[in-house]
Amino acid sequence: MAAALTTAYYAAPQMPIDAKRLFQAGCDSLGLNSNIRLPLKPSRAYGSSLVLAREWEMKDLEKKLAEAIEYSYEPTWDTGLGEFTWGLGLNEDYPRGQFNAFLAAAEASGPGLWTALSEKPLEVCPQITEVDFPTMAFTRAEWVDGELHLRTSPNQPDPRAVTRFKVSGLMPGRWQIAGNESASVEVIGDEATVAMPLIHADLILSPLR
Amino acid sequence: MELSDRSLGWLRYLNRKAHTKDDWSRSGKPHPHWDDRSDPPMASWHRFDLVDSSYAMGLMAQRTPAWTEQYVKILDQLIERHLCWWSASDWLTQFGHDPDRGDYPDIYKLFIPPELWGNYDAPGWTANGTAPWGVQIDPVAADGMLFYKGFFLVLLGIRSMIDPDDRWNQPFQMIRDSDNSFTWTHSEIAEHLCQQWLAAPIGCH
I want to staple B145 with a disulfide (CB 3.0 to 4.6 A). Which of A18, A23, A156, B139 is the partner? Predict the structure, then answer.
């Protein structure tokens, strides 16, 4: 029945009622509804189960799984590269790809997100492009009431360095950027070019009204 | 919604992994950071690392919907590899019945009916060429190989959900091994699999 956990993961977006029954049966079989035996063995099942626990807001199970994974799966930062992986206690040269993939899915999951991915395409919106990744990145990038809310997350912040990125598909007109006095924006047609120091910052790009 | 620091850290890792050049053609070999070890006998193939890695991309894209560029770049790298020979190395090397099926480890008893132990191919053994189907090189067109084309559609589907450019509905070549190159599009693969299900409700094998 433990294999039902994997089937439930794929069935969840399209057949949620059946998927939940399978999931519960798999959880019972694997002992996830009682005291989880630690350390966990390397497996895709715990990552996929944490995706579904978060998808369906099963708070108790989510907490137990997250703690068990944290205890068992050797979360590892490479601070130089800014990379995060799970070693899973395997002592291998490379992080085990398939198991890492499910754990990364769990890390990014949340209520309804796995289902939403199957339901319809992301809503089309003006996009940030030409980011100097992985030097620069964003942990927030979303449009709220016509304004682009950004949280920048450079790998190695350097206030003396300048990074640039574009925002494409804007309504032509004048735009402003707020949140850091050194940040600037230049707009040509439907495209803005933002220049800013290589730092953590919360920015808002908005039309000048 | 936001992306956690850990998600961003894993995105950096996968970005480096996906953009490290390697050769998935028949004469090449995938870089060892692609996982062909997990969960034998069904999933211990490099392509599962490609497909499984796409799930986080689709979820992360919903957390930063105005910045999907990086996810799409990575997904394209995953898809590009899935077009090559090594993505179907099992189908293209496992012909007929498994010559080792009399020597399977005991753990395989989980997958095989007891009365057929020793005379039954393990799940995951693709058995290309067995009767009545014969050898079929194209893993998409084949009567079997569901776990190839089905998961590939998941990978293509996630990419299509986060970028509207429809890139993979332009014809592309798969396998790419001299005469054994096959032209498909995302929609054609989906339509083909749909027709296979309609023709055989028990499903393709």
Answer: B139
Which range has the top average pLDDT, B38-42, B58-62, B164-168?
B58-62
Residues in CB range of B150: below 8 A, 6 or more apart: B193
A113:B62 CB<8 A: yes
Chain A residue numbers with beta carbons less than 8 Å from the beta carbon of B67 are 127-128, 131, 138, 141
Listed in sequence order, the residues at least 6 apart from A98 whose beta carbon sits closer than 8 Å to its beta carbon are A44, B35, B38, B39, B43, B48, B49, B52
Calpha distance A208→A118 (Å, rounded) = 37
Where are chain A's structural domains? 4-119, 127-207
Q: How far is Cα of residue B203 from the mean position of the Cα atoms in its chain?
A: 18
Question: Nearest residue on chain A to B151, judged by CA atoms?
Answer: A10
- Nearest chain A residue (CA) to B67: A128
> Looking up tokens 């390397």, which residue turns up?
A42
Are B65 and A140 in contact (CB < 8 Å)? no
Question: What is the C-alpha separation between B103 and B106, in angstroms, rounded?
Answer: 9
| b/e per residue A148-163 (b: at least 16 CB within 10 A) | bbbbbbbbeeeeeeeb
Q: What is the pLDDT of residues B133-156, one digit of tens each?
A: 999 999 999 999 999 999 999 999
- Separation of alpha carbons B187 and B169, rounded Å: 6
Residue of A nearest to B33 (CA): A94
Contact A139 B3 (CB under 8 A): yes
All structural domains of chain B with their residue ranges: 5-92+128-199, 93-126
Distance from C-alpha of B20 to C-alpha of B80, rounded to nearest angstrom: 13
A vs B, Cβ pairs < 8 A, gives 173
- Choose among A116, A30, A101, A25: nearest CA to A65: A30
> Tokens 């040269």 label which residue?
A93
ipTM over 0.95: yes
pLDDT in tens, B5-29: 999 999 999 999 999 999 999 999 9
Torsion, CA B78, CA B82, CA B86, CA B87, rounded to 10: 110
The Cβ-side half-sphere exposure at A109, using a 13 Å CA radius, reads: 27
